[in-house]
Amino acid sequence: MKHILSILSITLLFSCHNQAQVNDKQQAVINADPIVVPLKDGKARAYFASGCFWCVEAVFESVKGVEESISGYAGGHTDNPTYEASNTGRTGHAEAVEIIYNPKIVSFATLVDVYFASQNPTQVNGQGPDRGSQYRSIIFYQNDEQKKIINQKKAALAKKLDATIAAEVYPFQKFWIGEAYHQNYERRNPNNGYIRNVSIPRLNKFKAKLPEVLKTNTKH
After folding, report:
1. Domain boundaries, given as residue ranges, for the chain
2. Could you please report the per-residue DSSP string of 112-171?
3. What pLDDT does 173 receive?
4. What pLDDT score does 89 carry?
5. How far apart are CA 93 and CA 102, in angstroms?
6. Which of 69, 120, 131, 212 has the greatest number of C-beta atoms within 10 Å?
7. Radius of gyration of the chain from its Cα atoms, rounded to whole angstroms
């Protein structure tokens, strides 16, 4: 019995030590200086996490001025995250999207409005049926101006709803592009059960909230 208790104590000690190391790595990500992504061909990039990236990708692609939305992972402390690894919740990453947009047509502030209007902003660690840290809400900023915009809109929404807003605010570090089969998933799989029952209703609910930001040819 003493031998068993000794093994259990050592295992618990190592487990706590490993968890502390993970927490330190994740805190370093949160405290890092943001990385600015330069304009390319006049296009800017923004990064958001808000539940399943299949849903979020479709939402942003319905917005005027957004040229492309790419599904992937961001916000974690590990390199080369995969769908399977991020789903364990141990990589620190959330499912995220890279938004490529024309800043002459749509502003970063409007994209933040789109972000909040397309989710349940008070749900912690998930959206709808998707639960876990890999589905948590995060807004990534690249400079102080973007951070100010995010925090002002988050505070205003908290006051309006009289509730705590779940979205975390992180300095942007790196976006890892997701696996090929995740890209444009809703568009390519319109009859998928999840798409029909979760993704499309979420998109349509958003469209009803902010019709003024929509492209004219985005119908479901």
Report:
1. 35-210
2. HHHHHHTS-TT-SSEETTEESGGG-EEEEESSHHHHHHHHHHHHHHHHHHTS----EEEE
3. 97
4. 87
5. 27
6. 69
7. 19
Q: Does the domain spanning 35-210 belong to CATH 3.30.70.1170?
A: no
Instruction: Tell me how far apart the alpha carbons of residues 188 and 116 are, in angstroms, rounded to a whole number.
Output: 26
Residues contacting residue 110 through CB under 8 Å, at least 6 positions apart: 63, 65, 213
| Whole-number percent of the chain with pLDDT over 70 | 88
* pTM over the 0.90 mark: no
- 2 pLDDT higher than 90: no
Confidence of residue 145 (pLDDT cuts 50, 70, 90): very high
Active site residue 55: no
Handedness of CA 183, 189, 190, 193 (dihedral sign): negative
* Catalytic, out of 44, 52, 56, 166: 52
Give SS3 for 97.
Answer: strand
